Task: inverse folding
Protein backbone atom coordinates (compact mmCIF):
# COMPACT_ATOMS: atom_id res chain seq x y z
CA UNK A 1 0.00 0.00 0.00
CA UNK A 2 1.38 3.40 -0.96
CA UNK A 3 2.08 5.84 1.82
CA UNK A 4 0.27 9.11 2.35
CA UNK A 5 2.88 11.80 1.67
CA UNK A 6 2.43 14.69 4.08
CA UNK A 7 4.03 18.15 4.33
CA UNK A 8 3.73 20.06 7.60
CA UNK A 9 3.56 23.87 7.61
CA UNK A 10 3.41 25.15 11.18
CA UNK A 11 5.29 28.02 12.82
CA UNK A 12 5.13 26.78 16.42
CA UNK A 13 8.24 24.63 16.85
CA UNK A 14 6.93 22.35 19.59
CA UNK A 15 3.65 21.72 17.78
CA UNK A 16 5.42 21.03 14.50
CA UNK A 17 7.96 18.65 16.07
CA UNK A 18 5.24 16.88 18.03
CA UNK A 19 3.05 16.27 14.98
CA UNK A 20 6.01 15.25 12.83
CA UNK A 21 7.29 12.79 15.44
CA UNK A 22 3.87 11.22 15.88
CA UNK A 23 3.27 10.91 12.13
CA UNK A 24 6.69 9.37 11.52
CA UNK A 25 5.76 6.51 13.82
CA UNK A 26 3.00 5.41 11.43
CA UNK A 27 4.01 3.21 8.54
CA UNK A 28 1.26 4.52 6.27
CA UNK A 29 2.50 8.13 6.58
CA UNK A 30 5.59 9.68 5.01
CA UNK A 31 6.51 13.20 6.16
CA UNK A 32 8.21 14.71 3.10
CA UNK A 33 9.15 18.02 4.69
CA UNK A 34 8.21 20.85 7.00
CA UNK A 35 8.22 24.64 7.04
CA UNK A 36 7.70 27.35 9.64
CA UNK A 37 6.19 30.01 7.36
CA UNK A 38 4.05 30.33 4.26
CA UNK A 39 6.83 31.33 1.86
CA UNK A 40 8.97 28.30 2.71
CA UNK A 41 5.82 26.21 2.78
CA UNK A 42 4.83 27.10 -0.77
CA UNK A 43 8.34 26.30 -1.99
CA UNK A 44 8.17 22.97 -0.18
CA UNK A 45 4.82 22.12 -1.74
CA UNK A 46 6.04 23.07 -5.20
CA UNK A 47 9.12 20.89 -4.82
CA UNK A 48 7.59 17.82 -3.17
CA UNK A 49 3.98 17.73 -4.40
CA UNK A 50 2.75 15.90 -1.28
CA UNK A 51 -0.63 14.21 -1.08
CA UNK A 52 -1.67 16.41 1.84
CA UNK A 53 -0.38 19.64 3.33
CA UNK A 54 -1.16 20.18 7.01
CA UNK A 55 -1.32 23.97 7.22
CA UNK A 56 -1.54 26.15 10.32
CA UNK A 57 -3.87 29.09 9.81
CA UNK A 58 -1.72 31.54 11.82
CA UNK A 59 1.56 31.63 9.93
CA UNK A 60 3.85 34.65 10.51
CA UNK A 61 4.29 35.99 6.96
CA UNK A 62 0.85 35.25 5.49
CA UNK A 63 -1.94 33.18 6.96
CA UNK A 64 -2.74 29.61 6.01
CA UNK A 65 -5.86 30.71 4.18
CA UNK A 66 -3.85 32.80 1.73
CA UNK A 67 -1.33 29.97 1.35
CA UNK A 68 -4.20 27.62 0.54
CA UNK A 69 -5.63 30.08 -1.98
CA UNK A 70 -2.28 30.43 -3.76
CA UNK A 71 -1.67 26.69 -3.79
CA UNK A 72 -5.11 25.87 -5.18
CA UNK A 73 -4.81 28.61 -7.82
CA UNK A 74 -1.63 26.96 -9.09
CA UNK A 75 -3.21 23.51 -9.39
CA UNK A 76 -5.45 21.93 -11.97
CA UNK A 77 -8.74 21.23 -10.13
CA UNK A 78 -9.26 18.14 -12.30
CA UNK A 79 -5.89 16.66 -11.34
CA UNK A 80 -6.57 13.81 -8.91
CA UNK A 81 -2.94 13.94 -7.73
CA UNK A 82 -3.17 17.59 -6.62
CA UNK A 83 -2.14 18.40 -3.07
CA UNK A 84 -5.03 18.50 -0.61
CA UNK A 85 -5.01 20.93 2.31
CA UNK A 86 -5.88 20.08 5.89
CA UNK A 87 -6.14 23.27 7.95
CA UNK A 88 -4.99 22.87 11.56
CA UNK A 89 -5.82 25.72 13.89
CA UNK A 90 -7.00 27.03 17.24
CA UNK A 91 -9.51 29.30 15.51
CA UNK A 92 -13.08 28.05 15.26
CA UNK A 93 -14.83 31.32 14.44
CA UNK A 94 -17.23 31.38 11.51
CA UNK A 95 -15.20 33.79 9.38
CA UNK A 96 -12.02 31.70 9.60
CA UNK A 97 -13.82 28.45 8.90
CA UNK A 98 -15.74 29.68 5.86
CA UNK A 99 -12.74 31.60 4.53
CA UNK A 100 -10.63 28.45 4.68
CA UNK A 101 -13.13 26.43 2.67
CA UNK A 102 -13.69 29.30 0.25
CA UNK A 103 -9.92 29.31 -0.34
CA UNK A 104 -10.08 25.64 -1.25
CA UNK A 105 -9.21 23.84 1.99
CA UNK A 106 -10.21 20.18 1.91
CA UNK A 107 -10.46 19.53 5.65
CA UNK A 108 -10.42 21.53 8.88
CA UNK A 109 -9.13 20.33 12.27
CA UNK A 110 -8.65 21.99 15.64
CA UNK A 111 -5.18 21.78 17.21
CA UNK A 112 -6.53 19.94 20.24
CA UNK A 113 -7.59 17.05 18.03
CA UNK A 114 -6.47 13.62 19.24
CA UNK A 115 -3.75 11.94 17.22
CA UNK A 116 -6.08 9.08 16.26
CA UNK A 117 -8.58 11.59 14.89
CA UNK A 118 -5.82 13.41 13.03
CA UNK A 119 -4.87 10.13 11.37
CA UNK A 120 -8.50 9.56 10.49
CA UNK A 121 -8.70 13.08 9.05
CA UNK A 122 -5.64 12.41 6.91
CA UNK A 123 -7.09 9.13 5.63
CA UNK A 124 -10.48 10.67 4.83
CA UNK A 125 -8.87 13.67 3.13
CA UNK A 126 -6.55 11.44 1.13
CA UNK A 127 -9.54 9.41 -0.07
CA UNK A 128 -11.01 12.56 -1.63
CA UNK A 129 -13.54 13.44 1.05
CA UNK A 130 -13.52 16.28 3.55
CA UNK A 131 -13.07 15.87 7.29
CA UNK A 132 -14.61 18.56 9.47
CA UNK A 133 -13.80 18.83 13.16
CA UNK A 134 -16.80 18.34 15.46
CA UNK A 135 -16.07 21.76 17.00
CA UNK A 136 -16.94 23.50 13.73
CA UNK A 137 -19.53 21.13 12.27
CA UNK A 138 -22.33 23.45 13.40
CA UNK A 139 -20.82 26.37 11.47
CA UNK A 140 -20.72 24.43 8.21
CA UNK A 141 -24.21 23.04 8.79
CA UNK A 142 -25.67 26.50 9.40
CA UNK A 143 -24.01 27.86 6.28
CA UNK A 144 -25.30 24.94 4.22
CA UNK A 145 -28.82 25.63 5.44
CA UNK A 146 -28.51 29.27 4.42
CA UNK A 147 -27.13 28.46 0.97
CA UNK A 148 -29.65 28.33 -1.90
CA UNK A 149 -30.17 24.89 -3.37
CA UNK A 150 -27.68 24.21 -6.11
CA UNK A 151 -25.02 26.49 -4.63
CA UNK A 152 -23.65 24.22 -1.90
CA UNK A 153 -20.27 24.21 -3.61
CA UNK A 154 -19.68 27.55 -1.89
CA UNK A 155 -19.65 25.76 1.45
CA UNK A 156 -17.28 22.95 0.54
CA UNK A 157 -15.44 22.96 -2.76
CA UNK A 158 -16.34 20.47 -5.51
CA UNK A 159 -18.88 17.69 -4.90
CA UNK A 160 -17.08 15.90 -2.09
CA UNK A 161 -18.99 14.04 0.56
CA UNK A 162 -18.20 15.32 4.04
CA UNK A 163 -17.35 13.42 7.22
CA UNK A 164 -18.87 15.18 10.20
CA UNK A 165 -19.14 14.01 13.79
CA UNK A 166 -21.97 15.95 15.39
CA UNK A 167 -24.40 15.87 18.26
CA UNK A 168 -27.36 13.50 17.96
CA UNK A 169 -29.82 16.41 17.82
CA UNK A 170 -28.33 17.56 14.54
CA UNK A 171 -28.08 14.32 12.59
CA UNK A 172 -31.29 14.72 10.56
CA UNK A 173 -30.08 18.10 9.35
CA UNK A 174 -26.66 16.66 8.58
CA UNK A 175 -28.24 13.99 6.37
CA UNK A 176 -30.08 16.69 4.44
CA UNK A 177 -26.98 18.84 4.07
CA UNK A 178 -24.60 15.99 3.17
CA UNK A 179 -26.57 13.08 1.68
CA UNK A 180 -25.18 9.59 1.36
CA UNK A 181 -23.88 8.48 -2.01
CA UNK A 182 -25.68 5.77 -3.97
CA UNK A 183 -23.04 3.22 -2.98
CA UNK A 184 -23.23 4.22 0.67
CA UNK A 185 -27.01 3.70 0.58
CA UNK A 186 -26.46 0.21 -0.84
CA UNK A 187 -24.02 -0.58 1.97
CA UNK A 188 -26.39 0.92 4.53
CA UNK A 189 -29.26 -1.27 3.29
CA UNK A 190 -27.11 -4.36 3.80
CA UNK A 191 -26.08 -3.16 7.25
CA UNK A 192 -29.76 -2.87 8.15
CA UNK A 193 -30.23 -6.43 6.88
CA UNK A 194 -27.52 -7.56 9.30
CA UNK A 195 -24.82 -8.37 6.75
CA UNK A 196 -21.17 -8.51 7.81
CA UNK A 197 -18.46 -6.57 5.96
CA UNK A 198 -17.40 -9.76 4.19
CA UNK A 199 -20.93 -10.49 2.98
CA UNK A 200 -21.42 -6.86 1.88
CA UNK A 201 -18.17 -7.05 -0.09
CA UNK A 202 -19.33 -10.27 -1.77
CA UNK A 203 -22.77 -8.91 -2.63
CA UNK A 204 -21.45 -5.61 -4.05
CA UNK A 205 -18.32 -7.07 -5.68
CA UNK A 206 -15.97 -4.77 -3.77
CA UNK A 207 -13.16 -5.39 -1.30
CA UNK A 208 -13.64 -5.62 2.46
CA UNK A 209 -11.36 -2.59 2.80
CA UNK A 210 -13.65 -0.56 0.56
CA UNK A 211 -16.65 -1.69 2.61
CA UNK A 212 -14.92 -0.50 5.78
CA UNK A 213 -14.35 2.90 4.20
CA UNK A 214 -18.02 3.17 3.22
CA UNK A 215 -19.12 2.08 6.71
CA UNK A 216 -16.86 4.67 8.31
CA UNK A 217 -18.28 7.41 6.09
CA UNK A 218 -21.84 6.27 6.81
CA UNK A 219 -21.26 6.34 10.57
CA UNK A 220 -19.80 9.84 10.31
CA UNK A 221 -22.64 11.16 8.16
CA UNK A 222 -25.31 9.66 10.41
CA UNK A 223 -23.41 10.77 13.52
CA UNK A 224 -23.63 7.16 14.70
CA UNK A 225 -21.30 5.43 17.14
CA UNK A 226 -21.79 1.96 15.67
CA UNK A 227 -23.57 -0.04 12.95
CA UNK A 228 -26.62 -0.70 15.11
CA UNK A 229 -27.18 3.00 15.78
CA UNK A 230 -26.67 3.74 12.09
CA UNK A 231 -29.29 1.14 11.16
CA UNK A 232 -31.81 2.55 13.61
CA UNK A 233 -31.30 6.09 12.34
CA UNK A 234 -31.48 4.98 8.73
CA UNK A 235 -34.81 3.27 9.28
CA UNK A 236 -36.19 6.15 11.34
CA UNK A 237 -35.16 8.68 8.69
CA UNK A 238 -36.53 6.61 5.83
CA UNK A 239 -33.13 6.31 4.14
CA UNK A 240 -33.70 2.58 3.61
CA UNK A 241 -36.70 0.29 3.74
Result:
Amino acid sequence: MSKIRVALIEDHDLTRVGIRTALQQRQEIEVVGEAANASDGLRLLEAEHPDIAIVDIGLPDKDGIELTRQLKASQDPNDESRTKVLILTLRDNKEAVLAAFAAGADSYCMKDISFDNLLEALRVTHSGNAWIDPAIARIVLQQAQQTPEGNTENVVADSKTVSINAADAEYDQMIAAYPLTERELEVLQLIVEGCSNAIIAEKLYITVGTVKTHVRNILNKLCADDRTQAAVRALRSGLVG
